[in-house]
């Protein structure tokens, strides 16, 4: 099937759909200048996940982990949603029932205007109590915690080295108001379970007419299994990604190309 035919085939399915679910990964934010994890220049090419994205890493060196997330927040703060985020936000208004499940923690879908995003791996913009003291919500947005944004960042910045001078150096991570324990980033780390409410919302979202995986390498479970589950339940499934992934052979339609371009082309045909 030609590239154009594939785009038209997806558009045709969407024209007849009312329940549409999209599962996104880091590739959706690549055109906004946010590094992916596994691609060229990806975060896991430069850093070892077990040193930065596990509970054991935080227990060992909470300041390092906090600063790495602060660096990532800085990258995102200076980035803008791209055409892929914008098209998905338009679709959230167009389809009678649209669900967006994202593995991304950057908040760019929300900034583009999609509401009710199912944040599978949490958010860079929330915190939770490391002690799990029970006197706070499970996760919340805490402006104080984000005062350590670096004044200026670039996507080529080598890593977390920019606490604002004179403010928080040596006192990271910030403390929980309720119990005085550390605050941790409100993200899901390797080895941690997905929030049961998020899992439940995702399961419901997989009962749909069309399910599209966009910009994910489809290697991190349980997120990687979402699209095939939707297919098993009867949805038409598609993938949008410039590279083949383990899901490519399992979906009904794999479209090779960048999300910001392919989704725009599909949208123009709706
Ligand atoms: P990855 O970095 O594993 O994969 C990014 C995917 O995006 C790759 O398949 C690329 O081919 C694709 N890609 C690159 N540019 C693209 C573009 N312009 N348009 C569309 N696709 C593009 O990122 P994720 O699959 O999101 O988890 O990673 C899954 C999880 O692993 C993350 O949520 C994170 C990470 O470790 C945790 O931290 C728990």
Strand content: 5-15%
How far apart the termini lie comes to: 20 Å
The ordered H/E elements are HEHHHHHHEHEEEHEHEEH
Total count of domains: 2
- Unique bound compounds: 2'-O-acetyl adenosine-5-diphosphoribose
What is the average per-residue confidence, as pLDDT, rounded to a whole number? Answer: 90
Low-pLDDT stretches: 151-170
3D shape: elongated
Secondary structure tally: strands: 8
- CA radius of gyration: 19 Å
* Largest sheet, spatial ordering of strands: 3-2-1-6-7-8
Describe how the helices and strands are arranged.
Layout: H1 3-15, E1 19-24, H2 27-30, H3 43-46, H4 49-52, H5 55-60, H6 62-77, H7 83-94, E2 97-102, H8 108-112, E3 118-119, E4 122-129, E5 183-187, H9 196-205, E6 210-214, H10 226-232, E7 236-240, E8 253-255, H11 259-268
Parallel strand pairs: 1-2, 1-6, 2-3, 6-7, 7-8
Antiparallel strand pairs: 4-5
Helix pairs in contact: 1-11, 7-11
The protein binds 2'-O-acetyl adenosine-5-diphosphoribose.
Explain how this protein is built:
With 270 residues, the protein is an alpha/beta fold. The chain folds into two domains: 1-34 and 82-121 and 194-270, TPP-binding domain (Rossmann fold, 3-Layer(aba) Sandwich), CATH 3.40.50.1220; 37-78 and 122-187, SIR2/SIRT2 'Small Domain' (2-Layer Sandwich), CATH 3.30.1600. 34% of the residues lie in helices and 15% in strands. The protein has eleven helices and eight strands. It has helices at residues 3-15, 27-30, 43-46, 49-52, 55-60, 62-77, 83-94, 108-112, 196-205, 226-232, 259-268, and strands at residues 19-24, 97-102, 118-119, 122-129, 183-187, 210-214, 236-240, 253-255. The strands form two sheets. The chain has a six-stranded parallel beta sheet, with helices on both faces. A two-stranded antiparallel sheet has the order 4-5. Helix 10 (226-232) links the parallel strand 6 and strand 7 (236-240). Helix 1 (3-15) packs across helix 11 and helix 7 runs parallel beside helix 11 (259-268). The longest helix has 16 residues, at 62-77. Mean pLDDT is 90; it is low at 151-170. It binds 2'-O-acetyl adenosine-5-diphosphoribose (OAD). The site of 2'-O-acetyl adenosine-5-diphosphoribose (OAD) has 27 residues, from helix 2 and helix 11.
């Amino acid at each position: 099937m030609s590239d154009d035919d594939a785009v038209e085939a997806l558009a045709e399915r969407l024209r007849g759909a009312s329940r549409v679910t999209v599962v996104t990964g880091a590739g959706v934010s690549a055109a906004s200048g946010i590094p992916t994890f596994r691609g060229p220049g990806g975060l896991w090419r430069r850093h070892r996940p077990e040193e930065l994205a596990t509970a054991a890493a935080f227990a060992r060196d909470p300041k390092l982990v906090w600063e790495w997330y602060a660096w990532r927040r800085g990258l995102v703060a200076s980035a803008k949603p791209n055409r892929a985020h914008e098209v998905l936000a338009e679709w959230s208004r167009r389809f009678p029932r649209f669900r967006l499940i994202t593995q991304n923690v950057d908040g760019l879908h929300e900034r583009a205007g999609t509401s009710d995003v199912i944040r599978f791996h949490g958010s860079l913009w929330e915190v939770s109590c490391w002690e799990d003291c029970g006197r706070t919500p499970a996760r919340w947005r805490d402006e104080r915690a984000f005062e350590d944004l670096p004044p200026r960042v670039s996507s080529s910045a080598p890593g977390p080295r920019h606490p604002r001078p004179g403010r928080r150096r040596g006192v990271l991570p910030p403390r929980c108001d309720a119990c005085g324990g550390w605050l941790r980033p409100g993200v899901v780390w390797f080895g941690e379970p997905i929030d049961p409410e998020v899992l439940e919302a995702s399961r419901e979202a997989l009962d749909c007419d069309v399910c599209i995986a966009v910009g994910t390498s489809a290697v991190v479970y349980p997120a990687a299994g979402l699209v095939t589950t939707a297919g098993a339940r009867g949805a038409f499934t598609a993938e949008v990604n410039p590279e083949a992934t383990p899901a490519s052979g399992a979906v009904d339609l794999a479209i090779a190309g960048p999300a910001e371009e392919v989704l725009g082309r599909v949208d123009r045909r709706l």
